[in-house]
Design a protein that fits this description.
alpha+beta; 2 domains
Length: 231
Amino acid sequence: MISRSALFFPIVLAVMLALLTFWINQTVEQQGPKLDGSNRHDPDYTMHNFVTTQTDALGQLRYILAATEMLHYPDDDSTVLQRPRFTQYTVNKPYTQIEGLRGYISSNGEEVELVDNVKVVRQAFEGKGEMQVLTEKLWIFPKQDLVKTNAPVTIKQAPKTVITAVGMVYDKKAQTVTLLDRVKVHYERPPAVQAKNAAKSAKASKIQAKKVVKNQSNKVNAATKSAIKKK
């Protein structure tokens, strides 16, 4: 008679082979390419001279995002921009324009990253000169009206103020710029201010000289009168 272990051995072997085959199939399906092409990192569509706008609840223009080329990648739902330009608007305030060589939009559309030769220009307003910010990387959060970077920045404020720092937060709503580290400021008085101050100084010196001459004259007159009385 065939022993019981001899009967069970083929069955156990078949089960093990079935489990091994199932595991191999699952591994291949997880690691292998999907037939829909969603795991490729090449663009599924491209747009040239891309422009998108956003308005508020009242229909007022909030921002315009434009680029010479826009590419969308399906594997990570990312969007890449070539020569992006972001223009931000606020009612009764100057607009701010940000541009760079390359840009990336997050999958939820709430974050825009600009890299390489990034330049921020805030227009002049209410007696304040134009402001420029130069850096290599910048994150834009359109809903919060915030611009941030952890990279070195150079800020040029017209007419002749230059500020360097590492890290910056620009709040468009509050019209504030917060510098995070290693801040250095170089300020040079414009020629018009220098000339105005020089004119004020010259005028003050002239008035002082007149006072001195007048005092001396009064002393001479007083001495003369005293001499006449003694005679």
